[in-house]
Amino acid sequence: MRMLMNLAAATAVSAMVLAGPAAAQKSADPAQDAEVIKVYDAGTLKPADIRACLRQDQRLGDLEKRLTDYQASMTAHRSRITALEKELDRRRKQIDGTDPAAVKEYNARVERHRTMIDTYNEEMLPTLDRRRDQLNQLVKDYNAACADKSYFEDDWQAALAELGMKDPRPSKSGGK
Asked: Over the chain, what HEC string results?
């Protein structure tokens, strides 16, 4: 029998499965003399697959953070637009329409407001859409390659050690 770990959204789920002949290894429990037989079927990640999934999970986390940061910058930009809009409304009520310098200054602020809106609509929103599409495609690729797959705990631990990563799972499973 072998212990399989399920890699779905970085959560650990244990499952026991009967194994056929394959590479043998000694059990981690010295009190147990039985050999553990590893079988890598289509639903079981090999060590190289685990490393690739861990790297991809790390890339997804980085992209999610960058997307969140970009959304925060967009929120700040919208806030500046709103503040300028309020200022323009206040100034419009106070402007001396017979003073060319005051009209010119007001019109320059209107132009700045329009430019900020154009930047938001023509540059920031399309960039956000592209980044979301990119993230969604990477999540789709990750799910196809990594989600709902089983793996051996010792292969997982070896991959973490090789990559110098901390275990991203919410809790350690202690697989056998």
From this structure: CEEEEEEECCECCEEEECCCCCEEEECCCCCCCCEEEECCCCCECCHHHHHHHHHHHHHHHHHHHHHHHHHHHHHHHHHHHHHHHHHHHHHHHHCCCCCHHHHHHHHHHHHHHHHHHHHHHHHHHHHHHHHHHHHHHHHHHHHHHCCCEEECHHHHHHHHHHHCCCCCCCCCCCCC
Kindly report the average pLDDT of the chain as a whole number.
Answer: 83
**Interval 144-165 mean pLDDT:** 94
First CA to last CA distance, the chain:
10
Residues 135 and 80 in one domain: yes
Domain ranges, residue 161: 1-45+147-176
pTM, entire model: 0.68
Overall number of domains in the chain: 2
